[in-house]
């Protein structure tokens, strides 16, 4: 089940993709990570999907990553007596903390944290940015606004406040309940929504500890002000472009996406580009050419993974969507320009022994045409530094740690293998040789590179590089 590409595919499971047969078909079509969206479904649904994934993992004997995506705070207006109202540009419209019934003049907004952050001149975006209202006056429990861009507003539509740091945790009571349940199931990644600042990651880390890796979803423009620190605190980053596009102008999103990718690559943290990548495939069996180009652009930028949301969760063509994503990635990575762009955008190695070794491994692999780079790592840190280099040779990650082998399928260019613990350098080299051949990355007389840290088991201690030859049987 070797993937013939470096970038990975995240597929969201949902009503269209919940059976054993469908989930296995999605994996065989190219899905490396399965996302469980805790904004939808009940615990029993997610539990059954995890059971199926782990059964398929055991059957195919290849690790599969599971990502739980927390809902995060959902800021919404209340309800209207008629179900909806029409707001017209120039009219006055009020918001009230009290549980009033909405009319064409005002509606309930049951979020005191919003009122605490408002001031005259602040814009409110309603219904995914379709309506824009500007605050003219405000108090701790109410606000008056002028409608700038009008339209229909119906029950419980979402509210966004661009350019404002809301005094609110990224974790709701529901999120904390979902988190404990998901961690109990053994998920590998926790996607944290509504991240505004580094402290949001720290709060989640205190609850999660080392039971799963944290992927910070960047969907709030305010998070970009703290980008490098958020990247440092998180284990990976997701560019949630749909939500970013609500609170900033559409033309700003592409440059922000590239800025996030550059920060992640510099830090050696995995980065996922998500939202509307093949959106037309929710209803049609082929994407638009613009969507194909959008996916390819992310691959040229060197992202670790691209994600399917509704396409695989609730669309009519989930398998075709994964197959199409796989085809686009493989075609892009075969382009000579792809390698030129990766090499041209490679960040400088840090002044550490680990980075010196992994940078040397990439250079040696290129110079003597090495078949594969094999990394030994308990925690995955050696493998992450190797992937940061974006080498031409594939990376086989050997680890005796089950949690490590299961988070690595998200990482660029990595084929993760669970192995026995090694106790000597000679045993490590021999294990690397056998794994490279068994996993079909090398054959007799091929050269491989082995990197590891000695003493074994120390995190971030990569200090050995060995070129080994595959002997004839």
Please describe what this structure looks like.
With about 475 residues, the chain is an alpha/beta fold. It has three domains: about 10-70 and about 170-335, Phosphoenolpyruvate-binding domains (TIM Barrel, Alpha-Beta Barrel); about 85-160, Beta Barrel (M1 Pyruvate Kinase, Domain 3); about 355-470, Pyruvate kinase, C-terminal domain (Pyruvate Kinase, Chain: A, domain 1, 3-Layer(aba) Sandwich), CATH 3.40.1380. The protein is about 35% helix and about 25% strand. The protein contains 17 helices and 21 strands. The strands form four sheets. The chain has an eight-stranded parallel barrel with strand order 1-2-3-12-13-14-15-16, surrounded by seven helices. Strands 6-5-9-8-7-11 form a six-stranded mixed beta sheet, with no helix packed on it. A five-stranded mixed beta sheet has the order 19-18-17-20-21, sandwiched between helices. A hairpin with a 4-residue loop joins strand 7 and strand 8 (about 130-140). The radius of gyration is 24 Å and the shape is elongated. The model has no long low-confidence stretch (mean pLDDT about 95).
In the CATH hierarchy, the third-tier topology of the largest domain is known as TIM Barrel
The largest beta-sheet arranges its strands as 1-2-3-12-13-14-15-16
Radius of gyration, in angstroms, nearest whole number: 24 Å
Q: Count the beta strands.
A: 21
